[in-house]
C-alpha cells in the first residue's frame, strides 16, 4: 500500500518550491492533498499539475484567512490527517540593520503563520489522530550571517514544534519539524548574490564544501512524507536535519 494512502493533507505555500514538491510527492504516495498559497495562480497550477483535491488559499499572516482555508480543506477532504506548515519567507540583511517592520513581517509569516494554522487545524487533527510537519531550517540550529531574523524564526518554529508535540501527546497528535540546508528553490536563488558579496566565495563552492551538493525540494519532501506517515508513529517533537552534513562539520 502506498505510504500515505488516503491521508487527507493541507500544505501551506505549496504553489512553488518545497511546498509544491511535498504536495506532489504526497499525492504520488496516495494522499489526497489540498494546495494553498498566497499566490493563487501558482496554487492553481500546482493543483492542476498534480491532480489535487482542491485549492484553499490563504496568506498565513492573516488568521481569518488561515481559519477559512483550513475549514475549506476539511470540507473538501472530509477531515484532516496532516497539516504541513511550509509557507515561509527569507530576509537577507545584517541583523541590526534590519528594519523593525521587516522583522515583524518575517515573524508573522514564519512563526505566527504556523501557530495560527496549528490552532485552526488542531481539533480536526485530534479527531483523526493526525500530525503536523513544520518546515523549519538548519538556520534554526546554527547562526548564519545575513539571516539573523530568519534564524530566529526557525529556532522559534523548532521550539513550538517541541512544545506542541509534548502537549498534544495524550491526544495522539504528533508534531515534527524538518530542517533542510540549502535547497534548490527560488528562495535560495534570491539569497545567492548577497551571500557571495558577504563571503567573497562563489555560492557553488560554498555549497560543495559545506553540504556536498544543493538539496532538492524532493529530498525534503521524502523526509516530510516519512514523518507524515504511520511509519513514524513513535516520532514526535523531533526536528529532522537534512543538509548533506553541513551542521555535522566543524570545518
Ligand atoms: N530553499 C531552502 O534552501 C530552504 C532551506 C530550509 C528551509 N526552507 C523553508 O522551506 C519553506 C519553503 O521554502 P522554499 O525554498 O520552497 O521557498 P519559495 O520562496 O521557493 O516558495 C515559498 C512559497 O510560499 C509562498 N508564500 C510566501 N509567503 C506566504 C504567505 N504569507 N502565505 C502563504 N504562502 C506564502 C510563496 O508564494 C511560495 O509559493 C520555507 O518555510 C523555507 O523557510 C527552505
How would you state the average pLDDT, rounded?
98
User: How far do the termini sit from each other?
Assistant: 43 Å
| Main β-sheet description | 7 strands, parallel
Question: How would you describe the oligomerization state of the chains in this entry?
Answer: single chain
Order of helices and strands: EHEHEHEHEHEHHHE
User: What's the number of structural domains?
Assistant: 1
**Class by helix and strand content?**
alpha/beta
Q: Which CATH architecture is right?
A: 3-Layer(aba) Sandwich
Per DSSP, the total helix count is 8
Question: How many beta-strand runs?
Answer: 7
The CATH topology comes to Rossmann fold
Associated small molecules: nicotinamide-adenine-dinucleotide
Strand content: 5-15%
- Record the strand order, biggest sheet: 3-2-1-4-5-6-7
Name of the CATH homologous superfamily:
NAD(P)-binding Rossmann-like Domain
The amount of helix comes to 40-55%
What form results from the Cα inertia axes?
A: globular
Uncertain runs with pLDDT below 50, 5 residues or more? none
Amino acid at each position: 500500500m502506498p505510504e500515505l494512502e488516503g491521508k487527507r493533507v493541507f500544505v501551506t505555500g505549496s504553489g512553488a518550491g518545497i511546498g509544491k514538491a511535498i504536495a506532489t510527492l504526497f499525492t504520488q504516495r496516495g494522499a489526497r492533498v489540498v494546495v494553498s498559497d498566497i499566490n493563487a495562480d501558482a496554487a492553481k497550477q500546482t493543483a492542476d499539475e498534480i491532480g489535487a483535491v482542491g485549492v484553499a488559499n490563504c496568506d498565513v499572516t492573516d488568521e481569518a484567512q488561515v481559519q477559512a482555508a483550513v475549514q475549506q480543506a476539511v470540507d473538501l477532504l472530509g477531515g484532516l490527517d496532516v497539516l504541513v506548515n511550509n509557507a515561509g519567507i527569507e530576509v537577507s540583511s545584517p541583523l541590526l540593520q534590519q528594519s523593525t517592520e521587516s522583522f515583524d513581517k518575517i515573524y508573522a509569516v514564519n512563526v505566527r503563520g504556523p501557530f495560527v494554522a496549528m490552532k485552526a487545524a488542531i481539533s480536526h487533527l485530534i479527531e483523526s489522530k493526525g500530525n503536523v510537519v513544520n518546515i523549519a531550517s538548519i538556520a534554526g540550529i546554527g547562526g548564519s550571517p545575513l539571516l539573523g531574523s530568519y534564524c530566529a524564526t526557525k529556532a522559534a518554529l523548532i521550539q513550538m514544534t517541541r512544545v506542541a508535540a509534548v502537549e498534544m501527546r495524550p491526544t495522539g497528535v504528533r508534531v515534527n519539524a524538518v530542517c533542510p540546508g540549502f535547497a534548490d528553490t527560488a528562495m535560495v536563488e534570491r539569497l545567492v548574490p548577497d551571500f557571495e558579496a558577504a563571503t567573497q566565495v562563489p555560492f557553488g563552492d560554498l555549497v560543495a564544501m559545506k553540504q556536498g551538493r544543493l538539496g532538492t525540494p524532493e529530498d525534503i519532501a521524502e523526509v516530510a512524507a516519512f514523518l507524515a506517515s504511520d511509519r513514524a508513529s513513535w516520532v514526535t517533537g523531533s526536528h529532522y536535519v537534512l543538509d548533506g552534513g553541513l551542521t555535522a562539520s566543524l570545518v
